[in-house]
Amino acid sequence: MQLNELKGKPGARHRKMRIGRGIGSGKGKTGGRGGKGQTARTGVRINGFEGGQTPIHRRLPKRGFTNHFRKEYEVINLGEVQKAVDSGKLDNKKTLDLKTLQDAGLVRKAATEVKLLAKGALTVKVTLQVASASEAAKAAVEKAGGKLILPEVAAA
Fold first, then answer.
1. Is 53 strand, coil or helix?
2. How large is the average pLDDT for residues 94-106?
3. What are the beta bridge partners of residue 133?
4. What pLDDT is stored for residue 5 in this prediction?
5. What digits encode the pLDDT tens for the residues 1-40?
6. Is residue 91 within 8 Å of 124, Cβ to Cβ?
7. What are the distances in angstroms from CA 30 to CA 18, 22, 38, 44, 101?
8. N or C: which terminal CB in the chain sees fewer CB atoms within 10 Å?
9. What per-residue confidence (pLDDT) applies to 154?
């Protein structure tokens, strides 16, 4: 085998379309650009352009505010915890923290903080270590004989 005999696999290489090479090519005359005007020329920049009129994104007032310091919680419900314990994904004898919940597939791997909500019922005794929990969830965990470990809130 020589270098000049090397070929790609069949279908690996596709001939590029030669634009503007006659009407029989299928891409003749306007070369796939439609009619005349700005879009037929090179260097088109018309996103948001409204023919000289002030674009709508400049006519409308700015609204709202984005708090860059907000906390993003991954939400988990008591029913999901109960289902995971019943199926054997979670061991209710151990403390269930972020790492164990991630390993069980209850929260995403990218999650940094977990909030516990009271949707569903909890019947087993579990110790949960989460960043936040609703009042109803706290009551439900304690009613089932479990324990909830929350981070200490520093006094201001």
1. strand
2. 90
3. 116
4. 94
5. 899 999 999 999 998 999 999 999 999 999 999 989 888 8
6. no
7. 13, 10, 13, 16, 59
8. C
9. 61
65: left (phi over 0), alpha (psi -120 to 50) or beta: beta
The pair of structure tokens assigned to 21 is: 């090479």
Helix (H, G, I), strand (E, B) or coil at 43: coil
Dump strand ranges (E) for 21-134. Answer: 74-77, 95-96, 114-117, 127-129, 132-133
Angstrom distance (rounded) from CA 7 to CA 65: 58
Q: Output the six-digit token pair for 152.
A: 């200490």
Beta strands in the chain (DSSP E): 74-77, 95-96, 114-117, 127-129, 132-133, 147-149
Tally of CB atoms within 10 A around 58 = 9
Adjacent-strand bridge partners of 75: 115
- State how far Cα 45 lies from the chain centre: 30
Contact 111, 132 (CB under 8 A): no
Give CA–CA dist 127/43, Å, rounded. Answer: 63
**Mean pLDDT of the chain, nearest integer:** 90
Binning pLDDT at 50, 70 and 90, where does residue 110 land? confident
Q: What angle do helix axes 135-143 and 78-87 make, rounded to 10 degrees?
A: 40
